[in-house]
Amino acid sequence: MLEVRNLTFRYSPEHRPWTFDFRVDAGHCIAINGPSGSGKSTLLGLLGGFLKPESGDILWNEESIVTLSPWERPITSVFQEHNLFEHLNVETNIGLGLHPGLKLTEPQKTEIADGLASVGLAGLGKRMPGELSGGQRQRVALLRALLRKQPVLLLDEPLTGLDEDTRHTLRALLLKEKLQGTTIVLASHDEEDRRVLADSQWNL
Ligand code: ADP
Ligand code: MG
Predict the structure, then answer these.
(1) Residue among 11, 15, 20, 204 whose CB has most ligand 1 atoms within 8 A, to mutate
(2) Ligand 1: residues within 6 Å at CB?
(3) Whole-structure pTM value
(4) Tens of pLDDT along 32-44?
């Protein structure tokens, strides 16, 4: 179970802090609801370890992870901005999620090629991020997170802006991921994403 206990945060002292408090069972998906600017991305930043809370705790399987750095947490994130390394090709961008070096083994290359096909990007492993459309970059970022196979997946508007066919395919892929045991925290405006993926909701 992922537990967020009275986690408080503010960007500057003159603002009233947010308090985040919810839990989600392993293998379930919780949708974080709230209008634009309500703090959904901020919450995911805190869970991922990219922002530091003022107080409160985050627990995974009853152990506090709140002081761990992002890469030490059992968590992987797909950001709204996709955060690809512009000077590295698609295959290497994804490979960096699998291990720290740049040199990929043959089995890793095969895994990445199969993964690219599963998100509709077959054969694009050697492309540079600058040669991809926004939707293609989004799918590379999503695949990179999925292949890291961490127990918890944070999704920030993961399918926004993609065409309906691609959204349908990727929603099914995310559902499969959840059914295989991945715990998901989802920030999405899309009613259909929440209907298909979410087991519970938390309102900001
Ligand atoms: P959401 O993802 O729900 O749209 P955000 O978490 O991105 O909301 O932002 C919540 C609020 O915090 C907004 O008012 C936004 O302007 C503000 N905010 C976001 N990032 C920063 C930052 N780095 N510094 C100061 N304020 C920020
Ligand atoms: Mg946001």
Answers:
(1) 11
(2) 11, 34, 36-42
(3) 0.93
(4) 999 999 999 999 9
